[in-house]
Amino acid sequence: MNQSHESRTPPIVSVDVVLLTLVEQVLHAVLLRRAQAPFAGVWALPGGYIHTNEDADAQASAARVLREKVGIAGAYLEQLATFSGPARDPRGWSVAIAYCALLPVQQLPAEHADISVIPVTALPQLPFDHRAIVDAALERVRNKSLYSSLPVHLCGERFTLPQLQQVYESILGEPLNKVSFRRKMDEMELLQAVPGAMHSGGAHRPAQLYRVKPAFRQTLALAPRGL
Amino acid sequence: MNQSHESRTPPIVSVDVVLLTLVEQVLHAVLLRRAQAPFAGVWALPGGYIHTNEDADAQASAARVLREKVGIAGAYLEQLATFSGPARDPRGWSVAIAYCALLPVQQLPAEHADISVIPVTALPQLPFDHRAIVDAALERVRNKSLYSSLPVHLCGERFTLPQLQQVYESILGEPLNKVSFRRKMDEMELLQAVPGAMHSGGAHRPAQLYRVKPAFRQTLALAPRGL
């Protein structure tokens, strides 16, 4: 570090969050209407500055953005990548530390004038490089769903194995073999049966309800050989 | 973004690079002796500030750091993760966009008083959170070597298939089956034979020399089902 930090304009630093949920088996992203310039009034990813007086790290900044601007807590969060350069933000050379967040749709607030939940295949034109950030998040979620427990974070607290399989299939865009899916879930040691809790599914016989073991509520379980 | 960017201290932003090479089949990292405070005189990862007046993005900053401080060009570079928080740098709340770089040892400059090439298992105590950054890089390189062409960036321009297999084995820490290794290399469509170029390996009969196809010199080839 030959030159002092003060000798040139430092980059602008923000966090941006691709918050994904599953609505009727289709991946949706949550967009907020921007309150301020640049792009005031335009739909964009939830984001904001790092608050160096209160945030423990950039992930804490992302969690705070979700809490303060979307009104949610407890989403699964992971760092996606950092996007940077002189042109992505009209205010100047900027760094966006991007996060991917997953939340069951039941835990999202209702849509209103400034918050919208939109299928990822039908997003409007987004400001900054937010489209590239969304695309990176979708690629990450699809790839990681092939070998990890990531999709459980789109399920409610309790779910049946057929429901979980359907969540995986919705993300991967293809049907999975039931027997091998269940073996992979077993191998990941991800789930615990909820004692005595059964789901009555219409014409089917009642199915056991499961939940994620506490150890895997913020970290992923991995399936070493993939699904 | 409710509050203006100027209303609180912005984070310090830097890039840090874990530059890895292979010396006698052992992964080594390149450390530089820090010229300035904090930690002046201490061995650390190559790093520096983003130059917003010249860098096209943070990866260009990382490439510039390698060029100016290590004296190398053309290393394979990929973004690793961004490390952040109030405690990692004594100067204040900081963001380090970390990169992983791979280079054949033949392209490294000679060691001197301020540059050292050290086995990753024998690194000295490192300042900041550089140990955590190195650990993340090693995990990334080992994981990605299971399903991609990443290790070729540790080879010189021309190599035989047994030499390439040995590079993979050095990173993964285990022997690989020769037949399945060669099939995976074929599936990735990564290599081209160098016409007429053979390697004379002592007692063995001469072996064909290969090089990486131009398409995969800065992007990875992927083996969908792993090695």
Q: Could you characterize what this model shows?
A:
Two copies of one chain form a homodimer. With 227 residues, chain A is an alpha+beta fold. Chain A folds into two domains: 120 residues, Nucleoside Triphosphate Pyrophosphohydrolase (Alpha-Beta Complex); 67 residues, Winged helix-like DNA-binding domain superfamily/Winged helix DNA-binding domain (Arc Repressor Mutant, subunit A, Orthogonal Bundle), CATH 1.10.10.10. Chain A is 23% helix and 28% strand. In chain A, strands 1, 2, 3, 4, 5, 6 and 7 form a seven-stranded mixed beta sheet that branches. Chain A has a two-stranded antiparallel sheet with strand order 8-9. In chain A, strand 1 and strand 2 form a beta hairpin. Chain A starts with 11 loop residues before the first strand and ends in a 15-residue tail after the last strand. Chains A and B meet through strand 1, strand 4 and strand 5 of A and strand 1, strand 4 and strand 5 of B.
